[in-house]
From TrEMBL:
Annotated source species: Larimichthys crocea
Function of the molecule: Choline transporter.
Catalysed transformations (reactions): ethanolamine(out) + n H(+)(in) = ethanolamine(in) + n H(+)(out); choline(out) + n H(+)(in) = choline(in) + n H(+)(out)
A single GO cellular-component term on record: plasma membrane
Origin organism lineage: Eukaryota, Metazoa, Chordata, Craniata, Vertebrata
Sorted UniProt keywords: Antiport, Cell membrane, Glycoprotein, Membrane, Mitochondrion, Mitochondrion outer membrane, Phosphoprotein, Transmembrane, Transmembrane helix, Transport
Keyword Secreted: no
A matching Pfam family: Choline_transpo
Transmembrane segments: 29-52, 230-251, 257-275, 313-334, 359-383, 448-476, 496-520, 598-620, 640-669
A single GO molecular function term of this UniProt record: antiporter activity
Protein name: Choline transporter-like protein
Amino acid sequence: MELEEKPKYGEPRKYDPTFKGPIQNRGCTDIVCCILFIIAILAYIAVGILAWSQGDPRKVIYPTDSRGQFCGQAGTPLENKRMLFYFNIMKCASPMVLLEFQCPTTQMCVEKCPEKFMTLLKAYTSRTDFDYYKQFCKEGVTSSMGVPEILKLGLCPAMLTPSKPFTRRCFPALGQTGGVITVGNNSHFDDGSGNMRDAKDLVDGVKNATVVIEARQVAMKIFEDYTQSWYWILIGLVIAMLTSLLFIVLLRFLAGIMVWIMIALVILVIAYGIFHCYMEYAALKGEPGSDVTLQQLGFQTDFTVYLQIRQTWLAFMIILAIMEVIIILLLIFLRKRICIAVALIKEASRAIGHVMSSLFYPLFTFLLLAMVIAYWAVTAVFLSTSNEPIYKVFNETACDHSRATCDPANYTTSLMKKECPQSECLFAFYGGETVYHKYLIGLQFYNVFLFFWCANFVLALGQMTLAGAFASYYWAFVKPDDMPAFPVFSSLGRSLRYHTGSLAFGSLILSIIQIIRVLLEYLDHKLKGAENKCTKFLLCCLKCCFWCLEKCIKFLNRNAYIMVAIYGKNFCTSARDAFFLLMRNLIRVAVLDKVTDFLLFLGKLLIVGLVGIFAFFFFSGRVKAFENTAPNLHYYWVPILTVVVGSYLIAHGFFSVYAMCVDTLFLCFCK
């Protein structure tokens, strides 16, 4: 008698008339992973406490003078001295600035920037001018001291130039008259040592001094835009939430009609986008400067400049046209499957009707994710600011101790000062040589890794909770009598009580892949200047492979959590059962389930498109009715982009409940 060959993907589960949904009497799964996760969380808390005790966010907020003191810090003698003044801004043109991010010149905190041009030699002859000049000098300067002595001791700058504050730093107020660079309306200035210098010599110093803080100007403008428009952004997000909720409610009662209306509206919204881009493209024809290419323009901090170029609108039009064609072609080829998918959405609507609390569960997930992100961000800031101030020797003449570490407290009596009389011990950067500082990069890495693990755990908890709630609906013979009184809370309790280990196991696997992708991106960034094409190709292949692997693991984890929620088995067993079940129903999975996902994606796209168009016309002031209502902004794209991204996240939160419901019902049906 020949042995029967076992099916390649396992035996289908036999029908059990007594099975009524998620098993209540279950045991704890993946206990080892649960213990490992708890230990990792405790260690994460310890890292946070260590970072908070060592870090100092003031290093990011306030400018730092040559002594390592913070300008404008409340409760200190420098509270009213908010500006950072450079003794000789031209020294900032040194290439060392780009390596150490610090100008090799004395820097001190002042109440306001210099407003007039003046040399120390000239100021010394007038008591009034010298009193004004002394506010930009170190302590200890008196009128009894001679100019050579003051300059030798480095107590005062040789000259003052009219300056303006920029990100709380004093930079020369450079202008341009007839194509000539000027400072204080003069094209030349006395450098304090009797030499006349060209005003353009200040330009290189200003450029290098702002290499680290250019982005801060944009950040400050963006922050100001948020302070001016935050309530309008909230209104936009509330509109997105109400639109999403209305859409879900209408799907509950009019699923078939709403799906086809949604498809038609998506096509119309994208078509309007194409039309609008064409009108903007045509309106810029013949305008001066509108034919400049994006490559010629380069990167600009004022993003509104890009909207004055025809090529920008042409690119937008092409992108939207491609999207429109792809969506129409997909709808043509999937027209028969869409009808079946609509039936599945109708069933999902009935399930959500019995488990209405599931619609609000994404708010709980969002709250947990916000806590995880906040903890990671705060810990990262404290870790990055937990270094100690490092002082180095800066000098103008040749010196063996140049750039050597020094101690400003006793530098005047040190051997280095004796051997290099003209040198100074100035603050250079933040660092450290202790054991803590040596392993600081490891703590940062641990912070990032635990962020991924905790975030994936929160998302996994949401998926398993919703899967358990909807499975209790599917397997209930009499609805809602055979369902728990509170399906979502019952499922959440089971997930946390019995399956924390399984959730930690699945999220750990995904986090390892994500951290590898981060490391690959870091390597790619470091090797950008390399010309080894073989290395670049290998790195590109690795990035592509791990991206695909992450997508596969996410899909497998999602279905594994559904099986854990129903049968209460460990993660590996559930993942295997889910994989075999999907392989036995491969055609259904590839067509029916994915078509449903595509339709739900169109719903998200529709909500984002409608809210985005409304935000664009409101914040850009294109509609006369909103001209006086809309806030005055530096970049009107800031609130628009925020509203669009926020609308997508809100719509994704609501539709993710639908997607999880569809996946759970589909898997239960296949089972």
